[in-house]
Amino acid sequence: MHRQAITIYLLCDDLLREISFKDDPQCSMTAAEIMTFVFLSALYYECNYKKAKKLLEPMKFFSKTLSPS
């Protein structure tokens, strides 16, 4: 899963750079991190955000994750 997470993040980051997307400075997660979290949630946790957050936080993929709301 680690390699897939890194690959997904790099692809998302490259895509966003290619379209010249700029993150809002107030955001706690970058758009690439959010997209990666969504893809990992869909691939491994049946699109269940709470389950994904609970299981991905200890792996330290993301410095901070957004709340479900």
Explain the overall architecture.
The chain has 69 residues and is mainly alpha-helical. Helix content is 57%, strand content 0%. The chain has three helices and no strands. Helix 2 (31-44) packs across helix 3 (49-56). It is globular.
Secondary-structure-derived class: mainly alpha
Cα distance spanning the termini: 26 Å
- Helix coverage percent: 55-70%
Summed over residues and divided by their number, the pLDDT gives a mean of: 87
Number of strands: 0
Number of helices: 3
What is the molecular shape? globular
Strand content: under 5%
Low-confidence stretches: none
CA-atom Rg in angstroms: 12 Å
The H/E string reads: HHH
Main sheet: strands, sense, barrel = none
List keywords for this structure.
57% helix, 69 residues, 3 helices, mainly alpha
Task: Give the gist of this structure.
The chain is mostly helical and 69 residues long.
Layout of strands and helices, then pairs:
Layout: H1 2-18, H2 31-44, H3 49-56
